[in-house]
């Protein structure tokens, strides 16, 4: 994709520490400002994340390209086979592809006919399989955008607190982009996850305490002079970070031939991904890239951490925090920041929020592997399990076209299936033994 | 890509068990016959793998498309972002994309400027990162072609012997394609690898014995009536299977903008992959898809299983088998079938074969992770480690453009780096502790 010059829509602000040459591409592309999701107050594009008026979360507001949707579609289709094909819709400069980045995205949308048959879906089923990303979870998408924001702001250390996928995504992205990284984890994380987080060679700091203690410590660090020049991808870079999830919506629509599915089943951790996919779908319609049609968004949680599902079923608008206890650790956020927005979207679109227990999660991981050859992380077991439950309970129309998300790779959560997954038989190396075992 | 009708070049033969309608696409596309690599004898396309005249290995011979290279390039570029974009050059029908398959390939070619700087390479360095395949190794490429051959031959069980990557690739591909699968492994395989092989729900049979015993048992099974209808991907389907590796050559050339690199560093297990990449490069030149230029092919082995490297250094034409002892288990074939062909290619192209020890493998895995954010399997440590050694010893010109292969994912061989990979520090959650640890 050739570098393009886009008229700057962004004022240079005190918060913008990066150099901004006259004539250089607008550092945030079509992004115009940060705006508060609660009160609508607008702020310049800078590394801040909460509204000064009402403490509401800030998100990126755009001056999106107007004009011929055909031309925009053609420009996207001529772009690279990663998220940067959607650069015209993201808070990144038009020359983003010239910077070192892991270039995630453009993962497979798998037509899942075998799984559809097993579930009784007749309207068509697709799995959006984000295990194909560079570090094998959807986190590469959000980190890629946060990294570019960090670069623009002149930040030099990329950081996060994490118990798994995010640590690897940040470590890998920082390594490739030449940033220092410093990732914080609870000191008692499983050995395998520590290796995945540490192998990229950045600083990895074990914190003596719970994940909550890790987060509290990170908040302290951001407020301290030590934290100057630090980009915590999911804290002070969160408005940019979150936008990475929009690319899931864009890819699904493009891979369906520029149209929307009827139903989407999306996992809920903080709830951010679900809300950003909805934002992306609405943008596609507004831009004329797809025809407007109703779609239903379904949220999926693990029973052991289902505060949003509980609120949905009880008809509440607020989410009561819980203490997580589930094998779906990548979804185990007991106090999901975007819970109320998720409830609103599920209700507005005619969807639902549902949950499945650990046994159902394991069964669903195996069902997806057995039918489509896709080995999902526990979060993928949650979405597939919830899809099954939604059909059985009549909440999701099997005659409609559905897309279900798998957001991570089964190799990362082997422990979940290990106790119940093994050889069919163990035999001596003879044909007689093979026959005796009933395998012939 | 629209299905296209291609004139059949393949006679219906007794070995061809699949139905072949008049007017249907040629079941093996441009493939014309099997031919013996030793004596040149030709055989109809069928599930056989050894020459009846001289017992030499059989490989696929083609009637490749002649005519305008620009038109062929355009046809490829308009194809899907997986190996099937090269269907006109593979032994598959033109409508292959309509069949259920894992659709591997089109993995990233990563411009590795950081690694190049560390190694002193000035001519450009790229990592072809095959960890991005569906089951995270290059085996998905070869299995995909074997699966389509099995479908055409009317075989119903997909099988292999394996100690790792191949088991998962076969299990996953069979699941998606609706084949029965039956995979044989040594009974004492590590627990994690058993889970990866078993999760796709096919038969997984532990054999009480060594990997050699497993192979012997499989040969017996093929010759027995029990084995009728079975496709052992790397035995009776081996001629088709091997062709999958050609796609690595095609992708590298296309991703470089339809041109060849100066050097390629490729791991050696059986040696098949290296010989097929060479075959693919020669085809690209013959078809006019790239300009003809010299290229050097370098083979990479682990010191603990380096029979080809030893023969190369000794100036021998034959390879003396060894008993493998290395952490690079996916390359641990002590008696590599294609060893002599590898020696010939390395010498003919002006390349070399080199090896590195286990400590160098681990160091190279970490070097690649730290510089490019790519976490490689031990086989990727072998190629990157060998690249380093080739430069240090003056065998590879750092001013030339080099492509190094990573054929698998680090998540599959966590044990290799685990003992030496961990947190930088473990601290209490206070800023004072952070400062004391020297991290601020």
Automatic annotation (TrEMBL), chains A, B:
The Enzyme Commission number assigned here is 4.2.3.1
Q: Polar residues compositional bias: what residue ranges?
A: 1-12
Q: Name one GO biological process term.
A: L-threonine catabolic process
Any single GO molecular-function term of the entry would be: threonine synthase activity
Low complexity bias: start-end ranges? 13-24
Pfam families given in the database record: PALP
Bilayer-spanning residue ranges: none
Keyword field:
Lyase, Pyridoxal phosphate
Q: Which CDD domains does the UniProt entry name for this protein?
A: Thr-synth_1 (cd01563)
Q: Please list where the region (Disordered) is annotated.
A: 1-24
What cofactor(s) does the depicted protein rely on?
pyridoxal 5'-phosphate
Q: Tryptophan synthase beta chain-like PALP domain: which residues?
A: 104-408
Q: Which residues carry this modification: N6-(pyridoxal phosphate)lysine?
A: 139
Q: Which family does it belong to?
A: Belongs to the threonine synthase family.
Question: Which PANTHER family does UniProt cross-reference here?
Answer: L-THREONINE DEHYDRATASE CATABOLIC TDCB, THREONINE DEHYDRATASE, MITOCHONDRIAL-RELATED
Protein name from the UniProt record: Threonine synthase
């Amino acid at each position: 994709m050739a570098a393009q010059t886009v008229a700057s829509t962004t004022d240079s602000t005190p918060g913008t520490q990066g150099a901004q040459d006259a004539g250089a591409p607008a550092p945030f592309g079509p992004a115009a400002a940060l705006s508060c999701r609660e009160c609508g107050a607008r702020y310049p594009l800078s590394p801040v994340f909460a509204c000064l008026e009402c403490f509401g979360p800030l998100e990126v507001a755009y001056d999106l390209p107007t004009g011929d949707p055909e031309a925009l579609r053609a420009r996207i289709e001529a772009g690279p086979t990663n998220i940067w094909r959607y650069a015209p819709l993201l808070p990144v400069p038009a020359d983003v592809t010239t910077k070192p980045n892991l270039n995630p995205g453009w993962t497979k949308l798998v037509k899942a006919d075998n799984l559809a048959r097993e579930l009784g879906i007749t309207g068509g089923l697709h799995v959006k399989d984000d295990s194909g990303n560079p570090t094998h979870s959807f986190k590469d998408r959000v980190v890629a955008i946060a990294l570019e924001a960090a670069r623009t702001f002149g930040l030099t250390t990329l950081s996060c607190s994490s118990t798994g996928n995010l640590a690897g995504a940040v470590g890998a992205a920082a390594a490739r982009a030449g940033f220092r990284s410093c990732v914080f984890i609870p000191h008692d994380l499983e050995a395998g996850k520590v290796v995945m987080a540490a192998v990229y060679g950045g600083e990895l700091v074990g914190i003596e305490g719970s994940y909550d203690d890790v987060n509290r410590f990170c908040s302290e660090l951001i407020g301290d002079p030590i934290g100057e020049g630090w980009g915590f991808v999911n804290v002070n870079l969160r408005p940019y970070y979150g936008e990475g999830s929009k690319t899931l919506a864009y890819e699904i629509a493009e891979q369906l031939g520029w149209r929307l599915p009827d139903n989407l089943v999306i996992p809920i951790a903080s709830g951010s991904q679900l809300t950003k996919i909805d934002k992306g779908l609405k943008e596609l319609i507004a831009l004329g890239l797809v025809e407007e049609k109703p779609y239903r968004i379904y949220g999926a949680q693990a029973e052991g951490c289902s505060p949003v599902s509980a609120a949905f079923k009880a008809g509440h608008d607020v989410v009561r925090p819980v203490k997580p206890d589930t094998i779906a650790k990548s979804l185990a956020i007991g106090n999901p920041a975007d819970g109320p927005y998720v409830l609103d979207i599920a209700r507005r679109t005619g969807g639902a929020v549902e949950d499945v227990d650990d046994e159902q999660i394991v069964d669903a991981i195996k069902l997806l592997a057995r039918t489509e050859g896709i080995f999902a992380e526990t979060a993928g077991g949650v979405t597939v399990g919830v899809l099954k439950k939604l059909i059985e309970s009549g909440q999701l129309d099997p005659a409609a076209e559905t897309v279900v998300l798998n957001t991570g790779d089964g190799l990362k959560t082997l422990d979940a299936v290990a106790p119940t997954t093994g050889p069919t038989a163990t035999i001596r190396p003879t044909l007689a033994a093979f026959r005796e075992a009933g395998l012939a």
